[in-house]
């Protein structure tokens, strides 16, 4: 899981740097709404996750959770944070 997150974060950082035309990630970094675009996504997907959980829909829970994790990593990158800051916080709670 750590490796998956690290690889995804590296792709996000690359998209931020290179801004390819066909990249959804790049479109979040250049969105006219600024960081609100990713913040709105996180809000919408949190609601969708809650609904999936209430329905006991395991497939939908995994889908929405993945959407949230991806957009969370985009937010960290947007704030020029590193994945280790999240990992350090989680480690400090063990
Ligand atoms: N993990 C993701 C990822 N998760 C979600 N998304 C996009 O986030 C958007 C979510 O929007 P919506 O919630 O409106 O859409 P939805 O989830 O299809 O529909 P609902 O949940 O609303 O029913 C969709 O366009 C998804 O494609 C992602 N886009 C990209 N990635 C990763 O980022 C990499 C780089 O992608 P590009 O930047 O597009 O090259 C990819 O290889 C993936 O590894």
Automatic annotation (TrEMBL):
Q: Name one GO biological process term.
A: L-histidine biosynthetic process
What's its catalytic activity?
1-(5-phospho-beta-D-ribosyl)-ATP + H2O = 1-(5-phospho-beta-D-ribosyl)-5'-AMP + diphosphate + H(+)
Primary localisation category: cytoplasm
Return the EC number. Answer: 3.6.1.31
Name where it's found.
Cytoplasm
Write out the entry's keywords from A to Z: Amino-acid biosynthesis, ATP-binding, Cytoplasm, Histidine biosynthesis, Hydrolase, Nucleotide-binding
Q: Which InterPro entries match?
A: HisE (IPR008179), PRib-ATP_PPHydrolase-like (IPR021130)
Q: Name one GO molecular function term.
A: phosphoribosyl-ATP diphosphatase activity
Q: Please tell me one Gene Ontology term that the record gives under cellular component.
A: cytoplasm
The leader peptide range reads none
Specify the superkingdom.
Archaea
Q: Which pathway does it take part in?
A: Amino-acid biosynthesis; L-histidine biosynthesis; L-histidine from 5-phospho-alpha-D-ribose 1-diphosphate: step 2/9
Q: Does the keyword field hold Hydrolase?
A: yes
**EC class name:** hydrolase
Family assignment from sequence similarity = Belongs to the PRA-PH family.
| Protein name listed in UniProt | Phosphoribosyl-ATP pyrophosphatase
